[in-house]
Amino acid sequence: MMFFRDVMSGLFGDVPWTEDVPDLMGGDVLSDILPWRVYDPEKKIYHFQHGNGFLIEVGAAIGQSDMAENVGGVIAANLPSDATFQVLNWTSPAIDPITGHWKKARLGRTPLVDEMVRQREAHLKNLRFGMEEDGARAIPFDRHIFIAVWLENDDLSIADEKRLSSMRSGLRNVFNTVSWAEDVEPRRFLAFLRELFHTARPAGSDGDWNEEAYDEHMPLNYQMPGATLRVSSDALTFSGTPEMSATVASVNAYPPEWVFGLGMALNGDPARLMDRPVGPVLTSFTLKAMSVQKAGAYIVKKRGAAEHASTTSFGKFIPNFAEKKREIEDLAGEINAGERLFETLYTVVSYAKGGATDAQMASSEVESIYRRQRVKLSKDTYLQLPLFMASLPFGCSDKMMSDFGRQMRMRLMKSAASMSFLPLHGEWMGNGRGQGMLLAGRQGQMFQWNNFVSAGNYNVAVVGKSGAGKSVFMQELSVGIYTAGGRVLVIDDGYSFKTTAEILGGKFIAFDGQTRNRLNPFSLLDVDSMVSDDYRTDAIELVTRVVATMADLGSNSSGRVEGVEEDYIRAAISKVWNEKGSAGEITDVRDHLKEAAKEESRLPDVVRKLDAYSIGGAYGPYFEGEANIALDAPFTVVELSDIKGQAGLEATILQIVMFLGTELMYKTPRSVPVAIVIDEAWDLLKGEATAKFIEGVVRRARKYTGALITGTQSMQDYKANPAANVCLENSDFRIFLAQKPESIDALGSIDPPVKMLLKSITSVPGRFSELAIQMPEGFAYGRLLLDPFSLAVFSSKGSTVERMNHYKAQGMTTVEAIKTLVERGEVS
């Protein structure tokens, strides 16, 4: 064969071919530079190229000012002198674990609900890698915070294992006290790494971290298929979809003064709508404890240099030389007293959708956020790969630290100072999984808020000025309860829910004269349940309040002994029920009171008032015969604007409809949430009688997993109305949307710092509305990010329904009609 090759090359003058087999995979392979090797499930220890250690995930610090001090205490007591401590804070674009629960609780109800869920999920997923809109950034993510501790040695001795175990226990105790902590198993660890490398993967496979592929018989560094890196001087580019790049920057200057709480601002200033990263961010803070001997040598060296400078002319060329010398002496004293020094590396990896230029722009945005807090980031040209590797879990070895020290990327910090910079901050993670309202924090953390998760009551009071998105928020809250399997009764004033009810296929009831609605309260009572003392007491009390409102007792309390007339009314209602049961009427109550009036001088006025609601009276037809209003649809809207101005009738019908709502709560299984929703409550809820009626409603609602949800434009509206104020005082949850500054200033029970945050709440029409949730535990802040499809469903304009019906007449389904409305921009 060799001879044949030589002859052929001689004849034709060709370059001799080679028989060597080409090495197609001879280039650099990413797995070769990844340090992780195996995981010991028994000891929960990771073994990697340069050492061994543990990794835990912890809950974010939310307003815990003593968190840094507590972690510092654990480090002081348990961290081995030769150990490395690392905190990683990752704003993960994988929001499926949160949206997935929300989605699962809603799918399969109706085609329209399914489409609403899909549209919301798609909308949020489109935002998570960044968006191009100007004026405000709203990028949803799921924040994960990890703590890694490791020792650099080949073999982990029993003593080393005990030291790591002690450190792990101390950290878990700190975080379990205020949030949570759990060990990171290999599946979650690999899922985390695959996100950081934005690995190429099949569509739809970015689900639950705990379901990631893992083979215990294969080294960890070989279990990241699809991970590639293209390295340039100032960025890294990944292979996943969509195209993503990242730029790494390190902190090279810290402010002279700092407290732990200020670290929250490094995630973005809530009051600045554009003060947010443009994509996911990995923040990594690595601390290497300096041994006592090394710290002592460092002080001796610094002291010697200072003494030399002070005895020569060099001292006068050093700015603030006397102050610096004094600092060295103070530090020497602190070290002698037990203070520890740490060699630290603080890096920020800014991700962006697109190429290297986009990543550099993303890094510049983060740099400006840090600069406003007087923390300076350096542009680390030609150090992108080593700094990125050092930012990964267990990534920064002693050798790398030494190299970064020569590159002037390391900073020496005292224990207290380093603890104050730990990137442990995050936003509230919510109180529900599935049935709650889907929101994003002002910095982007996705969460669910569920008003039916409470140690107290489930009631909600919502305030928002005109244009703040209050009506849309209340529709989202109401529809969310319905789509998650609950029952909703909306009492409306102004037809704002009419469109939503019609689109959802719910029930709409109006007192517009076209249909004679009958509301005889006796026929609304449950005959079988009236034998129960508990039910009978509640029911008769509420009906008594309704009749008292008919008699106008609430507004005529002066000059009478309160409760006397009510006692007679209560007794009359009981007699009518005993005699006629559900066939009883208001006329029968009036007749019983007429008999009693022969001996009680205070009753003739009551009888005269009830004449209007009895047979032959102006309002009598509403209360004659069997009631024909039933809450037999999961979503029902009752419109009362057509009877405004008829004060007694309006209040009476409102109370009877609310009574219907409490009956629904009673008859519905406790596992199914039921809500009575009243928008513009200040205008509907009037009078002392209504206030007393609502007191009974809220007591009954709490008993049967029911919620009373009310909304007004300001807290002053609640305070100016006795009945509305009862709703406010009995609401464990208060929602603040954008308010006028003077309305917030009038909130006497709220601290000034919180008032400043409330004043910064705003809305961006068509994109999001910001809000604050006041709970017994404190305040949480969020954004309602609605998709165009949901906005079409929530539209209060009759023209929207008209156009939708036009398309449906052409053969479209409701879903197709709404999609067409959105695509053609016909939603008003």
Give structural notes.
The protein is of the alpha+beta class and 828 residues long. Among the domains are: 39-290 and 340-420, no CATH class; 291-338. Helices cover 39% and strands 18% of the residues. The protein contains 28 helices and 25 strands. Strands 1, 2, 3, 4, 5, 6, 7, 8, 9, 10, 11, 12 and 13 form a 13-stranded antiparallel sheet that branches. The model has no long low-confidence stretch (mean pLDDT 88). Residues 456-740 form the TraG P-loop domain. GO terms for molecular function: ATP binding.
Please describe the topology of this protein.
Elements: H1 2-12, E1 36-40, E2 45-48, E3 51-58, H2 67-78, E4 83-92, H3 96-104, H4 111-127, E5 142-151, H5 158-178, E6 181-183, H6 186-196, E7 229-231, E8 236-238, E9 244-253, E10 281-289, H7 292-311, H8 321-336, E11 341-353, H9 356-372, E12 376-379, H10 384-391, H11 398-406, E13 411-414, H12 415-420, E14 437-440, E15 446-449, E16 460-463, H13 470-483, E17 487-492, H14 498-504, E18 507-510, H15 533-550, H16 564-580, H17 586-596, H18 604-610, E19 635-639, H19 647-667, E20 674-678, H20 681-684, H21 688-703, E21 706-712, H22 715-719, H23 722-729, E22 733-736, H24 741-745, H25 752-760, E23 763-764, E24 768-775, E25 778-785, H26 788-793, H27 798-809, H28 814-823
Parallel strand pairs: 16-21, 16-22, 17-19, 17-20, 18-19, 20-21
Antiparallel strand pairs: 1-2, 2-3, 3-5, 3-6, 4-5, 4-10, 7-8, 8-9, 9-11, 9-12, 10-11, 11-13, 14-15, 22-24, 23-24, 24-25
